[in-house]
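Deliverable D4.2, example record:
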Amino acid sequence: MQVSQKGIDLIKKFEGFGPISYSCSAGRKTIGFGHVINRSDQFQTSITLPEAEELLRKDLIIVEAYINSAVRANLSQGRFDALCSLVFNCGCGAFGKSKGLVALNKENYRNAADEFFSVDKGFIHVKGKFSNGLYKRRQAELELWND
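Output generated by the structure prediction step:
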């Protein structure tokens, strides 16, 4: 599967566009729409909107491939889009080790959603602290999940 425009729009909304490199809430050097800068990246300090959109699409190809390989359950487009936003934000490693993925691969969609998006268990903390911004993002992803 591939992320739809609706999923891309959600990611862009919550990531926001940063034309100049900045440190994200997790302390990583970031640019564009939440792209974590690597030493080999050509965009180290600034990026245009079209370049950022192209970079986001490239980042999402990796996210899509990971989800397509890690998730064995059937997914609707809305659920796939929600997972793309979640994995883009929290990373493949955290998603791959999550109880939510275990539940999802057992086709227990309700428990998976609870593990991914809920205030009690969801991916809503940065360095151990509750993030209202992440909570809002998880609620928007949950809306897509339930679509």
